[in-house]
Amino acid sequence: MINRFASRRQTLGFFGIGVSALVLAACGAPATAASYKVSFTEDQWRKRLTPEQYQILRKEGTERPYTSPLNKEKRTGTYACAGCDNALFASKTKFESGTGWPSFYAPLAGGVGTSRDFKIGYPRTEVHCADCGGHLGHVFEDGPKPTGLRYCMNGAAMKFRPA
After folding, report:
1. Which of 2, 110, 120, 128 is the most buried (most CB within 10 A)?
2. Residue 131 near residue 81, CB atoms below 8 Å
3. pTM of the shown model
4. With 0-12 CB in 10 A as exposed, 13-18 as middle and 19+ as buried, what is 11?
């Protein structure tokens, strides 16, 4: 009887390890700083960024909704990464999504990259800066035409450059 329970525990343990391995493989390995055009040490990032920017860009945090001044930004210009100044989105692609975060229907060419994110238990598509790897937000398939995408970005992860 003891051996049967031990066998069940071992089987469940191996099953859990297998599922974990599959999830990690589906997520992909996180990119290292060396794989990006712009890289700094963690200490250098802390010095370059505000605490909120650091938490979002480097630790994949999320700002509270409706707190970013970029939500109300209506001028013509470019939204750039707060970490490395890489151009991310043109103002003409910004729209009011009602979510509390700046939203865009398309990034600029070469501005962003994406990866799978399972942090809240189901898959999402994380958006990061193509040049420094900083976390910007997520992209969803409920946006307006012409793309049908909603790039839901943390305002603190970006800065606005007027045209």
Report:
1. 128
2. yes
3. 0.78
4. exposed
Which fold is adopted by the domain 32-162? 2.170.150
Give the pLDDT score at 51: 97
Can 81 be counted among the known catalytic residues? no
> Residue 34's pLDDT is what?
54
Low-confidence ranges of the chain (pLDDT < 70): 1-34
Q: Residue 35 has which token pair?
A: 């794989």
Q: 95-101: which pairs have CB atoms within 8 A and are 24 or more residues apart?
A: 95/143, 95/144, 97/143, 97/150, 97/152, 99/65, 99/150, 99/152, 100/64, 100/65, 100/66, 100/67, 100/71, 101/63, 101/65, 101/68, 101/71, 101/137, 101/152, 101/153, 101/154, 101/155
